[in-house]
Design goal:
single chain, 77% helix, 5 helices
Length: 124
């Protein structure tokens, strides 16, 4: 049988080992959480904040003009016109939600420029 003195030493060593493992686990969890946060922040950075030069997205501008032409081809005040306008807004939202903010800006700018140039909205 182990003496009471040896038992106390064993319990003390066991508690110390258990405490060290707990501290090491907490530190490891904090480090992993920081790494995950860093990765998420880096992957969600908008390129506009990194590079102030804006390169136009030609395909977005082309699609914006085509959708604006579809609005012009509809009769003002009809459901077809409202549907065409809603389609434009939904497309812009999809681009933004997908992370293509520059393309969404170019798309909506092309639509508004074209529509302002031809003044079609609500001539009822």
């Amino acid at each position: 049988m182990a003496s009471p003195k040896n038992r106390k030493r064993f319990k003390k060593k066991y508690r110390l080992r258990k405490g060290r493992i707990a501290v090491a686990t907490i530190i490891l969890v904090v480090i992993i959480a920081l790494i995950i946060t860093l990765i998420q922040k880096c992957s969600s950075l908008d390129t506009a904040s990194i590079d102030s030069r804006h390169i136009p997205v030609a395909e977005a501008i082309k699609c914006g003009r085509e959708d604006a032409i579809r609005v012009l081809q509809t009769v003002p005040g009809t459901m077809a016109r409202h549907n065409a306008i809603l389609y434009i807004k939904s497309r812009e939202s999809k681009l933004r939600l997908s992370g293509y903010n520059h393309a969404a800006d170019d798309y909506i700018d092309a639509v508004t420029d074209y529509l302002e140039k031809h003044k079609p909205l609500y001539k009822e």
